[in-house]
Amino acid sequence: MSTPEAEIQNPKRLVVATGNPGKLREMQAYLDDLGWELQLKPPELEIEETGETFTENACLKASAVALATGQWAIADDSGLEVDALDGAPGIYSSRYGKTDTERIERLLGELGNELNREAQFVCVVAIARPDGAIALQAEGICRGEILRAPRGTKGFGYDPIFYVPDQRLTFAEMTPEMKRRYSHRGKAFEALIPQLSQLKGVQSD
Questions:
Q1: Cα angle value 130/135/137 (rounded, 5°)
Q2: Is the pLDDT of residue 140 over 60?
Q3: Which one of 107, 169, 177, 179 has the fewest CB atoms closer than 10 angstroms to its CB?
Q4: Mean pLDDT of 4-17
Q5: What is the DSSP secondary-structure string of 157-199?
Q6: Domains of the chain from N-terminus onward
Q7: Other beta carbons less than 10 A from residue 28's beta carbon
Q8: Which residues are within 8 A (CB) of 182 and not within 5 positions of it... i.e. 6 or more apart?
Q9: Closest CA to 45 of 25, 26, 73, 23
């Protein structure tokens, strides 16, 4: 039976379904203490997100990368759902404009003077076996409100306009540690990690 020290010295590896080093670092931060090591997917591997839900897209990306590399893979899909916009932009959050500024301006323009500013960030994380079968998945949700103007300089995407009332801060005003704790991605990994620990024996074969 392996010890925690042995597991850290011989990390389990997951290929991340992203070409973004920033996202890899963010995901790695959740898994460092468990002895897991993440690596970026091959740059030539492009995956079209054809799913109709965050879960479908996360599973689709994890399966495609696992099959292409013959290794265990991890993927997440996330986005912002605004109540007054019937859940938009949802799975199209990253495609709502060419830049973060454009996406924020479009969202604020569509909301206009709407009084209901409630919204939620959603993240689904999925892990696939080398044969493409989904082994684990978890969802995290963070409720908040959309501000009328951006606040804060940290983070990315819609972070400057997503306000978390309990913390009285936008995501863009939070430290990285706070965001990891309270964000939708943090909550998804919090749900995933207990399952992931049980997977270690399977992963080592």
A1: 125
A2: yes
A3: 177
A4: 61
A5: TTGGGEEETTTTEEGGGS-HHHHHHHSHHHHHHHHHHHHHHHH
A6: 4-203 (3.90.950.10)
A7: 15
A8: 142, 164, 166, 167, 174
A9: 73
In angstroms, rounded to a whole number, what is the distance separating the alpha carbons of residues 136 and 174?
29
Q: Point out the catalytic residue in the list 32, 33, 76, 77.
A: 77
Tokens of 102: 């454009």
What are the structure tokens assigned to 111, written together?
Answer: 């909301």
CA distances from 7 to 36, 38, 135 (A): 8, 15, 20
pLDDT band at 182 (very low <50, low <70, confident <90, very high): very high
Distances 122 to 1, 51, 84, 108, 171 between C-alpha atoms, Å: 37, 15, 16, 19, 14
Band the pLDDT of 6: cuts 50, 70, 90: very low
